[in-house]
């Protein structure tokens, strides 16, 4: 049973929903330790003063903010403590917005919210109300002494909460010269038509289960083989030979023809569109993972 990393309540209006917070991800990174190449022993990292070459005890470490090369403003722990946001146990909802209005780039880390003792009924009520209205709650919460901007939304039978980046943390794309120059390029109507056909021919439903981190799988397989004492033959990288790039229109047509030929030989990638909904039909709830990576992050 996972352990809650935070307990508190969602507050909107005069309604309070007791909740517990759980991480929604389990990172699968392969982590390596640094070892001595001579002895095979794990290397210890020490804090050393470069002027004296002496190790600095942890209790003598202070925080400093660099304002110029080798110039620092020293900050005392008590000074930082005085600026910490008020520690509350409440997710304060400030407004409800449309999910489509949130650019995925603002999402950071995903969590699940579960009802705490006595919170099942208001929890379920809030979840269903947000499903029916298609809204996402924007709120603030203090986690680990840091105020977080968060988005709370229905994710199936649970409420999901994603921490969000503040606007000044997101860099605008037009700061990249290459992007600015590309924005000046003109495309033809025919190029756009074929590009749209190519996109439609590759369209399908997102099924996350069919994607795997193949690099991580290969690294773990390598570790297992070496742990069993097997010899590993490292192959030299193959020399990459690039064919001359065709012109854009030829590349688009060739890509479209290849996709169509593959579709004729097997199951069609594109599924038939559902029948049009009747007027007044209820808007379906947002699916888990909609409008995301990235939210990150």
A few lines on this structure:
The protein is of the alpha+beta class. The chain is built from six helices and eleven strands. The chain has a domain at 6-26 and 84-169: Ku70, Chain: A, Domain 2, CATH 2.40.290.
Question: Can you put this structure into words, describing what you see?
Answer:
This protein has 297 residues and is an alpha+beta fold. The chain has a domain at 6-26 and 84-169: Ku70, Chain: A, Domain 2, CATH 2.40.290.10. It has helices at 77-81, 120-133, 177-182, 189-201, 214-227, 248-264, and strands at residues 6-12, 15-23, 48-49, 54-55, 63-68, 71-75, 90-98, 107-115, 135-143, 146-155, 158-164. The strands form three sheets. It has a seven-stranded mixed barrel. Strands 3-4 form a two-stranded antiparallel ribbon. Helix 4 (189-201) packs parallel to helix 6 (248-264). It is extended.
H/E element order: EEEEEEHEEHEEEHHHH
What is the rounded Rg?
27 Å
Q: Give me the side-by-side strand order of the main sheet.
A: 1-2-8-11-10-9-7
From the N-terminal CA to the C-terminal CA, the straight-line distance is 26 Å
Number of helices: 6
Number of beta-strand segments: 11
What CATH architecture of the domain at 6-26 and 84-169 do you see? Beta Barrel
Summed over residues and divided by their number, the pLDDT gives a mean of 84
**CATH fold label of the domain at 6-26 and 84-169:** Ku70, Chain: A, Domain 2
Helix proportion = 10-25%
Question: How would a crystallographer describe the biggest sheet?
Answer: 7 strands, mixed, barrel
